[in-house]
């Protein structure tokens, strides 16, 4: 795993926690911030996957 994959998965998990906390407390702002962070984390992890696959393909 590379840095982007690790950080992406971590951000995805933090976003999911914020999203659920927002739902439980009824805080739509926190819920939406959590969703955004979760999706950003997914994108970063996918970028890390692509980076890793490209590195493997060029070896």
Output the keywords:
about 60 residues, mainly alpha, rod-shaped
| Fraction of residues in helix | over 70%
Calculate the mean pLDDT score and round it: 96
Distance between the termini: 16 Å
Number of strands: 0
Explain this structure.
It is a single chain. By secondary structure, the protein is mostly helical. Helix 1 packs antiparallel against helix 2. The model has no long low-confidence stretch (mean pLDDT 96).
Provide a quick synopsis of the model.
The chain is mainly α and 59 residues long. It has helices at residues 3-25, 28-57. The model has no long low-confidence stretch (mean pLDDT 96).
What are the SSEs and their pairings?
Layout lengths: L2 H23 L2 H30 L2
Helix pairs in contact: 1-2
